Amino acid sequence: MLMPFTQKVLQVIRSIPEGKVLSYGRVAALAGNLRGARQVSRILHSMSGKHELPWYRVVNSKGKISLPPGRGYELQRALLESEGVAFSLSHTIDLNTCLWQPPDFMEWSG
DNA sequence: CCACTGACTACTT
DNA sequence: CAAGTAGCCAGTG
pLDDT band at A45, cuts 50/70/90? Predict the structure, then answer.
């Protein structure tokens, strides 16, 4: 069954394992839209509170938290660190070790 | 249908 | 590395 882009994004985020992160662009790509990074952010705005969603496992393509201090940055960083995600001195996650790489090239359409 | 919004991204200065 | 620019597109009213 084909789900709306929004629903696929939620499914992808829910499947991110502990200690791993994805960029907005990667989430969008797995959801079937290579250019949908901005939609992911908008979706998190409206859905992160109402769904049980590990929204904090989503960062930007540079491996940094996009939320400004006082608006969720500290919470997101604390949650990630509690799962073993390490931050560099420049507030950056090492994507070489923490970026989640899906097991297969399978589609998330179903 | 049109206008507007975004927790983005890649590219250029 | 920091700042600016252009492209991107699903939801919402």
Answer: confident
For the domain covering A4-101, report its CATH number: 1.10.10.10
Report the distance separating Cα A33 and Cα A17, nearest Å: 21
Separation of alpha carbons A96 and A104, rounded Å: 18
**Taking the domains of chain A in order of start, what are their residue ranges?**
4-101
Of residues A50 and A33, which shows the higher confidence score? A33
Q: What is the pLDDT of residue A51?
A: 77
Closest amino acid to nucleotide B5 (CA–C1'): A42
CB < 7 A from strand C, the residues are A 4-6, 33, 35-39, 42, 46, 90
Which residues make Cβ contacts (< 8 Å) with residue A49, sequence separation at least 6? none
